[in-house]
Amino acid sequence: MSSNPKDREKEIAALESLKYIKDGMKVGLGTGSTAAHMVKGLGRLVANGLQVVGVPSSDATETLAIEVGIPLTTLDKAKRLDVTIDGADEFDGNFQLIKGGGGALLREKILAYNTDINIIIADAAKQVERLGKFKLPVETIQFATTSISKILEEMSLSPILRMKADQPYTTDEGNFILDIDIFDVDDLTTLNTKLISIPGVVETGLFLDTTSIVIVGQGETTKTLKK
Ligand SMILES: O=C[C@H](O)[C@H](O)[C@H](O)COP(=O)(O)O
């Protein structure tokens, strides 16, 4: 049990989400510190006899899932997932999300798209009135990143190339990330369409209509929001 209050909220939201996983399900495994609690909890259920297969959304989650004994498969073999449980950097009252703080947005969005029920788990601080205090990650092909950055600059989105030590951060798919400021943007659907249409933009961390359930840890309890 976590002793850090924010981490404890992540943990109890994660434990609550495990109730949605039933025998025989194909489960999408999210990425990040909140999803890691869920993966560990699922590992304990598997050790007690629950039969599921997981599809990880990142190399880090794959490593953790193997460590805790969750049988894994690929999206190709699973074809469609029953449930995916993942974290978020922000969510609003319309179940819209910013994701990708940990760089896993691309595979996460692919899993979400191929899943029947997407559940987001989060600590209470992730709930916002308006998305955008957290910078929106935009995943870009390395070759195009400088030219995309110029375009995003012209759109007044203040792109910043994500770094790790003194090198550009590289995603599991070998791409770069530009973090942009969308706080003043009202129409996120139009923005997302514009971003995706720039050649070399692979995906954005805006998840506008994938989520139907959000489980929030608040102190020592959880609240479950359903669309
Ligand atoms: O790329 C990472 C994912 O989108 C995470 O789910 C997101 O950044 C939330 O991470 P955490 O649970 O660590 O706050």
From TrEMBL:
It catalyses: aldehydo-D-ribose 5-phosphate = D-ribulose 5-phosphate. Substrate binds at T31, G32, S33, T34, D86, G87, A88, D89, K99, G100, G101, G102, K126. It comes from the Bacteria. Pathway: Carbohydrate degradation; pentose phosphate pathway; D-ribose 5-phosphate from D-ribulose 5-phosphate (non-oxidative stage): step 1/1. Signal peptide: none annotated. Its EC number is 5.3.1.6. It is an enzyme of class 5 (isomerase). It holds the Pfam family Rib_5-P_isom_A. HAMAP family: Rib_5P_isom_A. Belongs to the ribose 5-phosphate isomerase family. Catalyzes the reversible conversion of ribose-5-phosphate to ribulose 5-phosphate. NCBIfam families: PRK00702.1 (NF001924), rpiA (TIGR00021). This is Ribose-5-phosphate isomerase A.
